[in-house]
Design a protein that fits this description.
21-stranded antiparallel sheet, 50% strand, alpha+beta, 488 residues, two-stranded antiparallel sheet
């Protein structure tokens, strides 16, 4: 069981250095990758070509409660003096705390314009991870079961994990239907690399305040898949272990393309006039069908002896006979106790996972040719949890070569996110960098502590070549020209 949990933890940790795509680039109108979050947005170029591996790199993480300053107490010199576990546990949300992360890297991407339509193609590696936990997951081991007995309540630790790592091949089409209406669509072909999801992972632990007997029941249902060959085995004592087979990678490399899925991005923009406009987008609406190295892990409290009663493991203390049995054969007692919490592993032919889709609605106001103010709301639903955020932003362009964006975002348990994005477009050479939380990198004496103390950290940067700069058609100009054309 420990090895299984370690395997899942490695999945999370491998992606934690990498929430949703950075929102700052969305507002940078000169950036070709603004169309990833707004498929219908007008792109002011005749074409663009990315640089493999460095044209668009996005790494971001959101963390609701796991902060360095809550866990450790420091003196004036910044040296850790105390471990503040009680303080950390008491400040958690009773029902929902989360850690979610995202990474995206473009390997191939390019685009070109044909009259009023812009076509783009990209091949990306992406991963999305969402980990939710309630307060009891931390409070139970920190405070102990007697903390709950004193309050005569049941501890209910609950976990929820959703992880998808995959390849994405997309074809984007943005079209100007009329000078006022733009639409965008991006169908995507997906090939899954790794997947982990808990359908249920919860327990109920009650300590009777009168006789201090402990009643435990639990449910655990998780599915795993990975293109890297591995297997999970369970021995006679119920212990599970995982074994990887890297030597099979050379022969099993086609597994990278066997977990097939599809998704789509949709966008709509309406220009009310030359100054105001609104738009809406639905992103990552899709699924992946997993077929390689699939396992399902199941566990629930089972009747395995005299400690079982009415669906729960009941422990009322050790008798003299129990102590003697432990002395004689401690391994047998261990095996007996594990029998109440068996872990069953089974190979599964196929299962389907949904992507963490999101929606965006926004309104903007242009002030002259070079300044735009925007208010944006976005949200997504993951494992029945709704994750909303609201952003206000300003984007300005200067001398036709410098692109600047400043924005402020309010998200769940995160209220100090000042975003900053800059871009330089020198001829066809375009370099940019952005972050959704600029001050998150400077809120402590060391860079590492700053990142561990911020609820949101994001960095998106790259180099891209674009050419043939254009301007949006002014509304009313075309009609005026036709009206005054003698040939009409």
């Amino acid at each position: 069981m420990k090895k299984i949990l370690l395997f899942i933890s490695i999945f999370i940790a491998s992606l934690a250095l990498a929430a949703q795509d950075g929102i700052t680039v969305h507002f940078m109108r000169q950036n070709p990758y603004s169309q990833y979050s707004s498929p219908s947005a007008f792109l002011p170029y005749n074409g663009h070509v990315g640089v493999t591996g460095i044209s668009n790199v996005n790494i971001s993480v959101q963390n609701s409660d796991l902060f360095y300053k809550r866990l450790f107490g420091c003196n004036n010199e910044g040296t850790v003096t105390t471990l503040r576990l009680n303080n950390f546990a008491d400040q958690l949300s009773p029902k929902c705390n989360f850690l979610n992360s995202n990474i995206g890297v473009n390997l191939i991407d390019f685009g070109f314009r044909v009259k009023q339509m812009y076509f783009s193609f990209s091949y990306r590696i992406r991963s999305d991870e969402y980990f939710f936990y309630n307060q009891d997951v931390v409070a139970l081991p920190v405070h102990g079961n007697m903390y709950y007995a004193d309050q005569n309540k049941t501890a209910t630790p609950t976990l929820s994990l959703s992880l998808n790592a995959y390849q994405e091949i997309s074809l984007g089409i943005q079209a100007e239907i009329t000078p006022q209406i733009y639409i965008g669509v991006r169908p995507k072909l997906l090939f899954g690399l790794a997947h982990a999801k808990t359908r249920s992972a919860d327990a109920s632990i009650y300590t009777n305040p009168e006789d201090y007997s402990i009643s435990i029941s639990h449910h655990f249902d998780t599915e795993l898949s990975c293109f890297i060959p591995y297997e999970i085995n369970t021995d006679t004592s119920g212990q599970a272990g995982i074994q990887f087979h890297p030597e099979k990678l050379r022969s099993d490399w086609p597994n990278m393309f066997k977990n097939v899925g599809a998704s789509i991005d949709l966008g709509f923009t309406y220009r009310i006039n030359n100054m105001f406009g609104v738009s809406a987008s639905v992103l990552d609406l899709g699924f992946i069908c997993w077929k390689t190295n699939n396992y399902q892990l199941l566990s629930s409290t089972t009747d395995a002896g005299h400690y079982y009663n009415d669906g729960s493991f009941i422990f009322s203390g050790l008798t003299y006979d129990d102590i003697e049995r432990i002395k004689e054969n401690p391994e047998a007692i261990k095996k007996e106790l594990l029998g109440y919490f068996p872990l069953e592993t089974s190979s599964v032919k196929t299962f389907t996972s949904m992507l963490a889709g999101r929606f965006i609605v926004e309104g903007y106001c242009n002030v002259g040719k070079h300044h735009r103010f925007t208010a944006l709301f976005q949200g997504r639903i993951v494992n029945k949890y709704f994750m909303p955020s609201f952003t206000i932003a300003w984007n300005g362009t200067f001398l036709n070569i410098f692109d600047l964006c400043v924005n402020y975002t309010i998200a769940r348990k995160s209220y100090g996110n000042l975003g900053l994005g800059v871009g330089f477009n020198l001829g066809v050479f375009h370099i940019y960098a952005s972050t959704d939380n600029f001050f998150g990198f400077f809120n402590s004496k060391s860079p590492l502590r700053s990142l561990l103390n911020t609820p949101s950290a994001n960095l998106q940067a790259g180099i891209v070549f674009d050419w043939g700069k254009l301007q949006e058609t002014k509304l009313g100009v075309i009609k005026y020209q036709k009206k005054n054309n003698p040939g009409d």
